[in-house]
Amino acid sequence: MDGGGLTQLPDTILLEVFLCLEHPDVLAAGGTCRQWYGVSRDEFLWRDLFYRYYNVNRSVPRHPAAISWLDEFRRLYDTIPCVEVETLKEHRDQVLHISFSHNGYLFGSCSKDCFVKVWSNDLEISVLHSANMRPYNWSYTQFSQFNAEDTLLLVSGVYIGPHSSSSGEIAVFNLDDFTLLSRVRNKPYDVFGCWLNETHLISGNLHWIGNMTSCSVLWLNKAYQDIESENINVVKRLFQLQNLNASTIRTVMVADCGRHNTPDLLLGFEEQLANTPARVFDLGSDSEDEGCSKAKHRSAVASEAMVGGQADAKREGSALSGGGQSLMDEKQIEARVAELFLQAKTKPADMDLLSEGQTVQDKKYLIFTTGSLTYTPHQIGIKQILPHHMTTSGPVLGEERSSNEFFDALDYTIDVHGHIIGMGLSPDHSGAEDRRGYIWDRHYNICLAKLQHEDVVNSVAFSPVDQEMLITASDDCTLKIWRSPRVLRIISTKPSRKKYSFFWLNNKK
Question: Domains in the chain: how many in total?
Fold first, then answer.
């Protein structure tokens, strides 16, 4: 017998008993005595509890950054922002998007009420700035993004033209006094636009060449015009890309490799690299293996690969059309013309130039949704941004290009074999039409929390400096603030009286 009057069981027997319990009972039992506390923290025990509770395949290893199975269980259970703490109702229509400033002090919201609002993310959240874009002939605001210095805000919306034709427009606001600095036309409106650096942003434009063929031009724009702009270009053509089968470039964003070079951010990278085949292929490869084998020869065969891809698109379009012979002939003729046009007018990517003079920390990539088979995007296009692209100095409209370099070639494409309806860098969250936002863990491939709204959830955003805070935006005209159980316990409860236990809020599932 020990001092507490309990029979001294061997640790092995006690471990077998604890393996039959759920995690709250194990934690409660751990506060009984020193022996039980030691067994209740056993790694083998918490490994079993983890796999069982989260229903994870046991072949998936522990996250490489985790210290122990107990700490990993605590992280996923106690630090996930799954508790609703506040509902913001200042918008009068569907809220479409949320974005945080890089320092986490501010966040922006866009809505179909045509307002863009900037909120102060303090203990008491409040509206800091608000602008109605209706006087500028906007239909609604749909996207916002802070520049790297958090001094400017990019706002994208739908612009109603004089003949009831809609396109997009991008507005740039100064965050000091929220004055409007510039407006840039953006077509189609779901390009959204994005920041390339602190002072320059990317927009899009669309030009139709034929019945089913168009050209997407991506422009580099200066965010504001000052005295120096009289001698420096305010806008310059960045890339010009051909679209087939009525497809267009959409959802443009910039990946900055210098900001994401920490190994801890690559969750299970070595395991994924060993178990997952490469998914990046040449445009127009007839098979995945062929695409991989040609990777080192992209510069020499880029045009041929693209032509092959368009031929595949033509065959696919013919197979899916099911229309009359005349319609098929028209599409075949147009596809053939587009192939010849592309072959003659596309400049292959210069792979030697891509790697010259840039370190991994300096590299930036333009990523966007596109497609060659249907109107709906089904591919992700990637184009490296070189140092001379970073400024608007130089020829304004690309006059330096010769006639045989009319279109730019993509560096890589990824075909997802399905319709792309959204895209983000390293996403751990999503919204859905089932009126819920979702928090996911990419390493274990599990859903950690479901965040309830009264209507479709359009946007979900983590605070960049506080991963235990999250905001959701919904068609129910509200923004909801979510906090982790751990943060709420620190703010609103007294410390636990039990020395060897920590409190669990059992409301996650």
Answer: 2
